[in-house]
Amino acid sequence: MKRIYAAAFIAAAAMAAISASGQTGGGIPLLDKAPQYRVTFDYTLTYLKAGGSPAREVTGGSVIVEDRAFFATGMDLELISDGESRWTVDRAAGEVVVEKADAGSVITNPALLFATYRDYLDRITVNSSGEDFLDVTVKVDEDVSERFVLKDIRFLPKEGKRSGFTLDVKSLPDDFVVTDLR
Question: pLDDT digits over 153-177, tens only?
Answer without folding.
Answer: 888 999 887 778 999 999 999 999 9
